[in-house]
Every structure is written in C-alpha cells, then in structure tokens.
Fold:
Amino acid sequence: MRFFRLMLFPVLLASVAVQVYAVPFTLFPKAGHLASPDGRFEVRDVDLREPGSEFAGIFHSLWLAETATGRSRKLCDYVGVAAVAWSEKDSLIVTQYLSKKTSRALIFATTSTREPIVLDVPTLIQMVPVELRPALRENDHAFVEASRVEGEIFHFQVWGYGQHDRNGFHWNCEYNLGAANLNCEARNGSASEQTAP
Structure:
C-alpha cells in the first residue's frame, strides 16, 4: 500500500497541476531564472552551499532582481521545489513544496518590500469554518497550491488525503486580498466563507 501511495503522489500532482494552473508556472531550482512578462524583473535561484554542513546543496533562495538597475532582494528560502509564476499587478505567486506531504502558497509584491502573504495549512486551519478543519488537521497529506491573482482575488487549491479522507479532498479557494476573507468550495459543490481574524 505504501508503494502505491508513493507512486500515486506524482500522478496526483501532475493531474492537479494540469487542471489548476491558469498561469504558466516554472519549477525552481531546475529553471534557474524567470523573467517578468515586461522584462523589468527577473526571479533567480541561488543555491545556498555552506562548507562543512551535512545539508549542503539542498537549500535554495529565490531572489528578485530589477533588470535595469541590477538591484536585488531576497524573497524567500526554500527546500525542494518551488513553482513560480508572474501574475497581474506586479505580483509573483509561489507554491513551495515543503515535503512530500505538504506545500504552501505565497504572494510577493514586486514593487514593494512588504511581507508576502502566506497561506499554509496552519493558517488555513484558523481561517476555515470549524466543519472543514478536520480535513486539514487529520490528513497527513495536505497541499496548498497557488493558481492565479485576478484583481484583489487570489485563487488557490487545497487538496490532500489521509486518515480523515482516504479518497482525498479537493477545494477551490479564493482569498480576497483587500477584505482578508476566504471562500472555499469543495468539488462536491458545498461552499464555505470565512472572514480572517
């Protein structure tokens, strides 16, 4: 059964990726860099190698560089794989795959240094209605994946499986960036809305 689940993960990831992403995502560290559609910015991968560390070579950083001036700033560190895409309004959306069991979604503003918006399982547990929380708490696989930003709405997917949902669960979610409220709809059509505390 464990072998089946290990084989099932890449298939699920690929099938969800095809259905979910409305904008093209680039996988880091493999890509190395990604230019913005207007050419003003570039996201670069920096491999963090620390001599003498047993973890050398597995940590990476995403940096945002302004192409005209060469100025750059660090966006985040990550381990494993990060899916990166440009979105409207000079924003960058990222899904960080933290392990084979979880991921989180981030939104970075390219024109300011304000903190990114981070949506991960612990954050969503606090935001979703009580009846949805067991899916996040009791499943050992739960993924939050960025999709796109349209106006003030950040679209993302939440899916997973485990003890609570052996056949899996899948939500299409919208987070209103201005009003800080969340709306998630399950595949079966049941909807929920919650305002962030």
Summary: Helices lie at 2-20, 121-127, 133-137. Residues 2-20 form the longest helix (19 residues).
